[in-house]
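Protocol step 4 of 6: structure prediction from sequence.
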Amino acid sequence: MRLRSVLFVGALGLVLFELANVYFIMPLPGSQRIQSLQIAYAIYQWRWPVRALGCVLVLAGLRDAWRAGRGWRIGGGLAIAAAAAVAYGANFVMAADQMFKPPRSLILKPAAQNQVPGDRLVVAVDLDGEARAYPIRFVGYHHQVRDTVAGRELLVTYCTVCRTGRVFSPLVDGKSERFRLVGMDNWNAMFEDATTGSWWRQATGAAVAGSRAGARLTVIPSQQTTLHEWLELHPASLVMQADPAFADAYAKDDVYEKGTSRKTLTGTDPDSWKEKSWVVGVSLGGSSKAYDWNRLRRERVINDAVGKTPIVLVLAADGASFFAFERPDVEAVFELREESLVSSFGTYTLWGTSSSGSLKPIAASQEFWHSWRTFHPDTQRY
């Protein structure tokens, strides 16, 4: 092989490598349906040595190609330009953290100054009497929002392709960790920590690649409701507002939240138990179960058990806000009467409160069926 040919080998290698670096970690045709996480992580970890090798090959053949005549010069120039263009696109156009950026400023307003419509969905928390509401419209774009509530750091996350809202403590090994969006695996957002470069799955908070593989972020209890429903329960709550720097990036409508979007990646299938159908997932005591959203909308109250724990799911009159509680006894069968939960054990609000005590809330998440099934492979269906 003549030395000039090495230029084209290096350029082609760089093109293929940069394409692979993007393909395995982004939602491209077929990429999310193969088990490629470790391949993607290995490619990513070796990116700089491989790039350096490709550049060495290009430079090694450049002088010989230049001397070989006009055709080789043009061909060599085009090869180098193609490699540079692909590298730029892969790292500055299609890179996840370039497409979806964290907010530059977190703006929180009380209800009286809030500009977010009451029918928009929020991921919300209440810690030691301090309440916050983070609209999905904003968190869904940013993928992560950092905040401090009642003295505790929070990492509020949302993946629109899985429809998973999760709130975690960003403390790892007792220290506050920083994360950046690096791509996705199994359709779920992946974050990279700044300290070790390990990759963490958004739906579970688990580190799945790198030196921290096997570690988990601590889950902070959260709820998904409409903002109106949340403020009814927490009138003193602060509400996240739009960051002016990203006003053009946020969704302009509410079709995603209402389930009327039919987009390939983020749209909803209105039928039950399809890939993009909605379910409410509950995981308790090593058991998990999924509840069809369409059935919950029809019945509004579901009495069931997950493993050995009796539970009740209830849907508010807005058809969007849902709550899950542990039933005080397996014989406590709840029904809905004038927007109250009623059983032989007492009458409660939809928020699980009463004058004599409260129902114990349990974690429940609304997400696409493909997501819940993927990350809870042993789940039962109600």
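Step 5 (inspection) to follow. The chain has a mean pLDDT of 95.
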